[in-house]
Amino acid sequence: MIALLVTLVIFPLVGGAAARLLRLTLPPTRSSRFAFTFLLGLGVHGTFLYILGALRVPLGWIAFVAPPLLALLARGWRSALGGPSEQRFALSSIVFAAPLVLLLFASAILPTRDYDGRVTWLPKARAIALESSISGPFFHGERGLNLHNRYPLLLPLDVATVMKLGGDTRNEAGRWLYIFIAISALVVLRAYLRKWYAASGGWIAAGVAWLPLLTTIEGGALAAYNDFALAAFFGIAVLALLDDDARAAGIFAAFAVMTKNEGLALAVAVLIAAAVVRRMKFSMLVPIALAEAIVVYCRRLVPPAYDEQYEVLLSSLPRSIARAPEAVAAIAKHAGEFQVWGGFWFAVAIAILVCAMRAREKAFVIVLVTIVIGLAAYVVALTVTSWSIADLAPVAVNRLLAQLLVPATTLVAMATHSLERDQAARRASQMR
Amino acid sequence: MRVVAIVLFVASIVLAGAPRLREVLRDANALAPLTFESRRARWFGKWYPAVAQLRNDIPETATVDFVLLRPEARDIAVLGAAELQPRDVRLFDGWDAWRKRERAILLHDDRAANAVPGAPPHAAQYVVIVDPQLEPPLRRTEATR
């Protein structure tokens, strides 16, 4: 119960104050503002601790409570968390909320079950909470088994906060944080889709809330895998870019960099999309560069252990290129898995064709570029991996595809809305 | 056209998602009456109560050697080591490796940074054998073969 309280108070508080301080554009409704500030708070709080950790400042109680205390003093959180409630009641709201409420109920009961969360990510959070450091004995192989020692630590730092302040270092201390990340991402997505694409947007978001992927043990919304966190940060960066808030786009893309290694590729996708539509600003580049600097610096504080050597893997790309078609086929095969995705990616493919014919605007270019670059990065990753693609794809591809959930859903809503515009235009011409 | 597109999209996902959601809720309902420890034990299987017992018996500051008696022991050894954190658990592939103090290499990949974390460890205060075919699959031993 304390973990729930800490999760729902600390991060929105920090996020609310940060949103005001950084003058970020907030989503349109009260619920989506709360969700947005929750995610922003995760990023800002984790970054603050990451910097302290890099400077080898002990991450004790003072470090964990400093951001929320500063947020309370700044007071900006109050205005950021306000705002209008839902524009009007809609049936799609019930369809959207029902599965998420049920997932929340399941999250309260089920133990954390995913393998990578239990052996890779949560032990890092527990070590930070217990050792007050991101480079303590655990990270030097002197206090238990640490797999993938050099992975980015934004989320473990947030989970460590919940563990420390909640006085509970069991795996389940972080479960509220993970489920609220997935829910918050969908709530913010829905608010923007309703703003831009009206009822079409609301219904498309409602459908996505039922994705079987959310209930998957490995990499689903109840898992501690961090793929939904990456999907949330990257997704909001794309939504912010669509909303013409380059600063917010850069900040959320920076959080993606500090969440998982593939976050860098997705942040680059956001930058390229911004450059293509001429919305690139210096304010986007700075946080992403700083985030990568923090990750690279902290990586050097600890020895590698079961870590990928990306420079070695990437340099082997010319020799591995013959595997690229197999990688593409593996991604396509998993995207088409009905029991994981329903018809989602099939709809995305059709939406690309529809938008290419009817909605060739900046928004389409932005989401298309981010999806294409994201997919290209995954193809390269599968191509150069030391694993056999047939072994790796079943455990990795759906989680990677989940990271593209927000721009892909936006594309479907955009296409659907373009059909509506078409109908309206046809009706108007008939009237004339 | 728009309505048809939306209905097809939502229906295709709900048709796939609802049964999965029902399964998750059924799991949650089945586990709800139990304590959290019992839920874990029910879900994870027989290795978990064995690790929970070790957690009760071994102090948090202790060092623990896990000796894996067969390759299939790796999964539960890794999960068990995480559950025993902050105890310093070291993994060894069999008694030979344990005697030579050579940590288990869990991932054989010449293009990854496979440095085994930490220096070769001294003998631990506790030795645990790990074998999924044993009952319990993780058990303390005084034996030093």
Q: How is this structure best described in words?
A:
The complex is a heterodimer of chains A (432) and B (145). With 432 residues, chain A is an all-alpha fold. Chain A has helices at residues 2-21, 30-54, 61-74, 76-81, 91-109, 115-131, 154-166, 175-208, 227-242, 246-257, 263-276, 282-301, 310-315, 317-320, 324-335, 338-341, 344-358, 362-384, 389-402, 405-431, and one strand at residues 307-308. Chain A is globular and about 75 Å long. The termini of chain A are far apart. Chain B has 145 residues and is an alpha/beta fold. The longest helix of chain B has 30 residues, at 2-31. The radius of gyration of chain B is 22 Å and the shape is elongated. At the A-B interface, helix 5, helix 6, helix 8, strand 1 and helix 16 of A face helix 1, helix 2, helix 4, strand 2 and strand 3 of B.
Provide a brief overview of the structure:
With 432 residues, chain A is mostly helical. Chain A is 73% helix and 0% strand.
Write the layout of secondary structure elements.
The complex is a heterodimer of chains A (432) and B (145).
Chain A: H1 2-21, H2 30-54, H3 61-74, H4 76-81, H5 91-109, H6 115-131, H7 154-166, H8 175-208, H9 227-242, H10 246-257, H11 263-276, H12 282-301, E1 307-308, H13 310-315, H14 317-320, H15 324-335, H16 338-341, H17 344-358, H18 362-384, H19 389-402, H20 405-431
Chain B: H1 2-31, H2 36-44, H3 47-57, E1 63-68, H4 74-84, E2 88-93, H5 94-100, E3 112-113, E4 126-130, E5 138-141
Parallel strand pairs in B: 1-2, 1-4
Antiparallel strand pairs in B: 4-5
